[in-house]
Amino acid sequence: MELTKDEEKSLNGEHGEALQIAYRILSATGEATDAEKLVPIDWAHVSGVNYNTIGDAGEEFLATLSKNAKFKVRTTVNPMGYDKDSVEKFGLDENFIQKQESIRESYKKMGVIPSFSCIPYEIYDMPQEGTQVAFAETNAAIYANSIGKLKTNKESAFSALASAITGKSPYSDLRKDDSPTMSIAMKVSDPNELTFGLLGYFAGKVADKSVAISGVKNLDKRCNKSLCASMGTSGSCGKFVLDDNSGASEKVDFDEKEMQKVYDELNTTESGDMVTLGSPQLGLDEMNDLTSMLKGRAFKKRCLIFCPRTIQEQARHLGYASQLESAGCELMSDCCTCLTPLVTKKDVDRVTTNSIKGAYYYKNSSGLDVNLKPLSKIIEDETS
Amino acid sequence: MTLKTIVRGKVSGKVIKSIQPINFLGSIDKKTGEITDQKHDLFGKKIADSILVFPNGIGSSVGAYTIYSLKSNNVAPAAMACQKVDLTVASGCALANIPLFILSPDEYENMKDGDEISLG
User: How far apart are the first and last CA of chain B?
Assistant: First the structure.
């Protein structure tokens, strides 16, 4: 990758350690993806905020980095480990809270917008189509490319952080060429958001950078988010298009049999001790929807709903929050299903959810059993 | 000859070869370097000081922090070698200073689990 004289100086440490680290990361990601140069980006979305996922090494790294680093472009952040408003209810240990607060402080020092959300695309205005951004959270990167028509690679926590500090990203992969190399024919009838989650998980496994999906006309937000999140979990694919005539050379079918295979990989039990909704966090439309679906009903077991802080505030203002709470839901902000210490083996063994991404991390990281169902079925079975 | 060097370094060690891609978040214990995903073909193996050979990284962007943590906890592989390098593995190795190589298809094919090799 060609660097300008100034970028070269930064890489050699002439502009300080923070920029040197950032350019070292971008040089590696640039080489790995055969980039020719770096291009300016308008917005970085950084992951690596939850103490549960980044640990002591991550916390110390960010504390040191934040002494010298400043974000150069608009930078938003992923969820952290808990909701500050309700943290005392969950009995987290002091060390966790202390380390989590240190991480929050480090990002603040570097100039972050404290979004603590995995759905930046639903809480901020999207830039013009074609704008280069650097999104680390995989569901957000896929959503930005596929629905927002922005340009980002499926960034890592460090590559997005480096882009936040330098305002640049290697010009490669999806930034350069996002034409699909594979086409997946959707053959499952009457699909819901869980079906699209299963399709996304399958697509992530079989497709490389960009995939076309045929046989689907349009998707509502819940299905789109489910598809983006599961695709990001299982593979390296960073974009999808709904296109019946994509011209992609490789073609595969997603039928009942393939769907069942993915379902059997992730669903490990037929019922849960509690229900969680979110991963990705719920947006305002989904909160509204859920409020209508729950009219006159209440959950028979504990139900946690994860949504961004700003969405919770709007939902409160519009009256959805109180209705959801009357139906037995607990609203959680600043955190999300995936790897939150709020849902662990200490309290539950089995979780019911409609999130494929949530299921993957419950199973693999938290060692929990998962009962996967679409939202409509969750409401049918778990409320009265 | 390796196809491309992403993070420089000279290393020797024993190959641990994975058939499946690796999601560094959620399938490795960052304190012990043990693979904890029961469905993974490296389940139960410890990757410390090995030359970890795998097709490519997948999944979470936060996996880069796992790679960095493995190094900080002294349980990182001595080097990694892949068929295809994704941004998570590239950036994690760059920050942790773990030598990282892209292998040619032949080389990848010929590298066997348990081989003693030198790279870089």
Answer: 9
Among the partner-chain residues B23, B65, B87, the one whose CB lies closest to the CB of A58 is B65
Return the residue in B62, B74, B88, B89 with the most chain A beta carbons within 10 A, the one to mutate for interface testing.
B62
Q: What pLDDT band is residue A180 in, cutting at 50, 70 and 90? A: very high
Q: Which domain holds residue B46?
A: 4-112
Distance (Å) from the alpha carbon of A364 to chain B's nearest alpha carbon: 6
Chain B residues near residue A53 by CB distance under 8 angstroms: 25, 60, 62, 65-66
**Residues ≥6 apart with Cβ < 8 Å to B120:** B2, B5, B8, B9, B10, B11, B79, B99, B101
Confidence of residue A91 (pLDDT cuts 50, 70, 90): confident
Residue B97 lies in a domain: yes
Radius of gyration in angstroms for the set of CA atoms belonging to chain A, rounded to a whole number: 21
Residues A37/A2, Cβ–Cβ less than 8 Å:
yes
- Residue B82 in domain: yes
Q: Are A78 and A48 in contact (CB under 8 A)?
A: yes
Question: What is the phi-psi region of residue A238: left when phi exceeds 0, alpha when psi lies from -120 to 50, beta otherwise?
Answer: alpha
Number of domains chain B is built from: 1
**Does the pLDDT of residue A372 top 80, yes or no?**
yes
The sign of the torsion formed by the CA atoms of B56, B59, B61, B67 equals negative
Residue A61: predicted pLDDT:
98
Torsion of CA B92, B93, B96, B99, to 10 degrees: 180
The CATH number of the domain where B83 resides is what?
A: 3.50.30.10
From the list A24, A138, A235, the residue facing B61 with the nearest CB is A138
- The predicted-structure confidence for A248-277, as pLDDT tens digits, reads as follows 989 999 999 999 999 999 999 999 999 999
Neighbour-count burial of A346, counting CB atoms closer than 10 A to its CB (0-12 exposed, 13-18 middle, 19+ buried): exposed
* pLDDT of B22: 94
The pLDDT tens digits of the residues spanning B76-97 come to 999 999 999 999 999 999 999 9
B24 part of a folded domain: yes
Q: What pLDDT is recorded for position A89?
A: 83
Interchain proximity A32–B86, CB inside 8 Å: yes
Please report which confidence band the pLDDT of residue B1 belongs to, taking 50, 70 and 90 as the band edges: low
The answer to the question of residue B120 being in a domain is no
Task: Say whether A96 sits in a helix, a strand or coil.
Answer: helix
Per the prediction, chain A carries an average pLDDT of 96
Look up residue B103 and give its two tokens. Answer: 């292998």
**Binning pLDDT at 50, 70 and 90, where does residue A340 land?**
confident
